[in-house]
TrEMBL record:
SUPFAM superfamilies: Osmotin, thaumatin-like protein
GO annotation terms (biological process): defense response
Keywords attached to this entry: Disulfide bond
Xref: InterPro entries: Osmotin/thaumatin-like_sf, Thaumatin
Disulphides: C12-C22, C73-C133, C81-C96, C100-C109, C110-C120
Domain of life: Eukaryota
Protein name as annotated: Thaumatin-like protein
Source organism (scientific name): Selaginella moellendorffii
Amino acid sequence: NWAVRFWGRRGCKFDGNRRGHCDSGDCGVPPATLAEFALAYVNQNLYDVSLVVDGYNLPLRITLEKNCKSPGCYSDLNAMCPKELQVSKDNWVIGCKSACEVFQTDAYCCRGAHSTPETCPPTAFSKVFKDACPQAYSDDVYFHL
């Protein structure tokens, strides 16, 4: 069993000792577009590009062997990010947080009474992500390619 998450970084500056800071995707700090892999997880190999937990900062696509789906987000969600979810630097949107990250409610985070696909339907915020990136895990419900 093996699981890993990769994310892109933007606007990074490092010193000679490899210590630094990034404008977005800094050591897993949201917002960050994620590539997730879970190998031999309950006898399955799962992979996705996720926008639902940590939001979005860069376009990302997973390309595997032929006959495998290539999940990803090719759109610039920063350009269409709802105002409430925007992360900006120098008047430029550099990331789009998830509604869960911003509002921390059970309804947006699909937890508590909203912990099943039936009780956690897509929201206006998740629909912006899903419409722009239909091949990414962006609904507030559970979905893996």
